[in-house]
């Protein structure tokens, strides 16, 4: 994606129907073409004439607090919305690989005992998000951690290195799973892109 203003909505790295039967086509179309697009459009609108067009997406998130009061919160919400959604879409794939690999697998076994325990803890965290937000697997000073963020806040604000995220805003699952977030999380585990997660893990210091 274009990391600088004007920001763009990158195409999904797979077709809209690729995640069936776990995540339905209509949800993917709306989520990418409407929800993410709105964050991209809003962010570009806010930055136009702001004097901050030279900041990258990540720099906008890191520095949201230091921006002028009238754009600080809108930048946090919309830059976060762009970053978090692209991370989420890139973290999924319809592949036969249903569990972590490589260094990430070793780290998960070390931190959580085994993959099943990790899944349980990750699901509990994703279930615990009150209202809208995300659950994340991050690396924090060399250790794996599961955290949640409200709204469109992003772990990079806290200098945490993201490995994997799940969007638990209702728009991510309501058409297929109605209000049953736990079904969505179970489905999502079938489309995690563990190779992408492994790459992200290896990029974290
Ligand atoms: Fe979303």
Q: Could you tell me which ligands this complex binds, including any ions or cofactors? A: fe (ii) ion
The third-level CATH topology of the largest domain is minor pseudopilin epsh fold
CATH architecture descriptor name of the largest domain: 3-Layer(bab) Sandwich
Give the terminus-to-terminus CA distance: 23 Å
The CATH C-level class name of the largest domain: Alpha Beta
The Rg value, from CA coordinates, equals 17 Å
**Strand content bin:** 5-15%
Mean pLDDT score, rounded?
97
Describe the fold and architecture.
By secondary structure, this protein is mainly alpha-helical. The chain has 2 domains: 25-90, Orthogonal Bundle (Helix Hairpins), CATH 1.10.287.990; 102-203, minor pseudopilin epsh fold (3-Layer(bab) Sandwich). Helix content is 48%, strand content 11%. The protein contains 8 helices and 3 strands, in the order H-H-H-H-H-E-E-E-H-H-H. Strand 1 (133-140) and strand 2 (143-150) form a beta hairpin. The radius of gyration is 17 Å and the shape is globular. The two termini are 23 Å apart. The mean pLDDT is 97. Bound molecules: fe (ii) ion. Fe (ii) ion binds at residues 31, 35, 85, 167, 169, 171-172. Residues 31, 35, 85, 167, 169, 171-172 line the site of fe (ii) ion.
Q: What is the strand and helix layout of this fold?
A:
Layout: H1 25-47, H2 57-62, H3 69-90, H4 102-112, H5 115-128, E1 133-140, E2 143-150, E3 161-167, H6 174-177, H7 181-188, H8 194-203
Antiparallel strand pairs: 1-2, 1-3
């Amino acid at each position: 994606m274009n990391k600088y203003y004007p920001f763009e909505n990158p195409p999904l790295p797979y077709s809209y129907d690729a995640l069936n039967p776990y995540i339905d086509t209509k949800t993917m179309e709306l989520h990418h073409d409407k929800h993410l697009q709105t964050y991209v459009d809003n962010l570009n609108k806010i930055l136009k004439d702001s004097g901050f067009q030279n900041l990258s997406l990540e720099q906008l998130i890191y520095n949201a607090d230091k921006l002028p009061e009238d754009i600080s919160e809108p930048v946090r919400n919309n830059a976060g919305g762009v970053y978090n959604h692209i991370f989420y879409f890139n973290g999924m794939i319809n592949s036969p690989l249903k569990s972590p690999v490589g260094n990430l697998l070793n780290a998960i076994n070390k931190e959580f005992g085994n993959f099943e325990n990790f899944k349980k803890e990750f699901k509990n965290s994703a279930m615990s998000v009150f209202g809208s937000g995300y659950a994340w697997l991050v690396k924090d000073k060399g250790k794996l951690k599961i955290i949640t963020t409200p709204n469109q806040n992003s772990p990079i604000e806290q200098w945490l290195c993201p490995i994997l995220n799940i969007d638990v805003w209702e728009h991510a699952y309501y058409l297929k799973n109605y209000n049953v977030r736990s079904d969505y999380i179970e489905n999502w585990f079938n489309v995690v892109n563990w190779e992408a997660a492994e790459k992200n893990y290896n990029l974290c210091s």
